Amino acid sequence: MSLATQAFLVSMSFSLLVTIPLMRLLYRRDIRLFGKPDLFPEILQRLVDQMWSLVWRRRRCQDIISQWPTFLEELSVTVMAGIDVRSAFEICSLKTHGHLKQISDRTVLKLQSGASLAVALESMEKEGVEPATRLRATLVQAESLGTPVADALNSLSQEYYILQQQRFESRLNALPLKLSIVTVLFLLPPILVISIAPHILAFFDATW
Questions:
Q1: Does residue 193 fall inside a structural domain?
Q2: Segments forming the whole domain that contains residue 149
Q3: Could you give the CA distance from residue 87 to residue 93 in angstroms, rounded to a whole number?
Q4: How many domains does the chain have?
Q5: Three-state secondary-structure class, residue 100
Q6: pTM for the full predicted model
Q7: Is residue 208 part of a domain?
Q8: Counting beta carbons within 10 angstroms of the beta carbon of residue 97, is it exposed (0 to 12), middle (13 to 18) or buried (19 or more)?
């Protein structure tokens, strides 16, 4: 038997020694013997569902946030061209895509049915578009103070551009830590097994 094969067998044995007790702990034998409900598949299914829901919400939020500064900038330019805010919202909603497009289409339908822009933006908030809260507050404040709506929208879009850049920089700064965790978890154990296993096998094969 070659040295590489022996090292592979040692690494597989080590993996089995770690995996089998863990599986016995998670999937206890007495649950099956006494006819009690098997909770392991149910817990695993709930865990997978929660993880998938979390990933889906995070991806949906990132999709909306990535389009929101451009949407506000286009809304500001459209209002600056002399179009009212309701019509500008309907026009700019046509240029969105993904999850924001679906929510914007439903919001436009409410506007066309006679709802005010504040009520329509409130419905966007309930559907998970958190930046709509800031947009509604900005429009109400601009209307009450008499400030130009286009300037307020432009300032708001610049704030979200800066916020998006800060989030990108924070994710970029966290990348070395994530790579180091992946390296420690997946690369170092095989290297240690391959480097130590031949010495262990040579120790056991040595004649005394």
A1: no
A2: 63-173
A3: 10
A4: 1
A5: helix
A6: 0.63
A7: no
A8: exposed
- Vertex 160 angle, CA 118 and 105, to 5°: 45
Task: Report yes or no on 109 lying in a domain.
Answer: yes
**Structural domain contains residue 160:** yes
Render each residue's pLDDT in the chain as its tens digit; 208 residues. Answer: 555 555 555 566 666 665 666 555 555 544 444 444 455 567 767 777 778 778 788 888 888 888 889 999 999 999 988 888 888 898 998 888 888 888 888 888 888 888 888 888 888 888 878 888 888 888 888 888 888 888 888 888 899 899 888 888 888 888 888 888 877 777 777 787 788 877 777 777 766 5
Return d(Cα 28, Cα 16) in angstroms, integer: 17
* Torsion angle of C-alpha atoms 168, 170, 174, 176, degrees rounded to 10: 70
- What size, in residues, is the chain? 208
């939020």: which residue's tokens? 61
Separation between Cα atoms, residue 26 and residue 41, nearest integer Å? 10
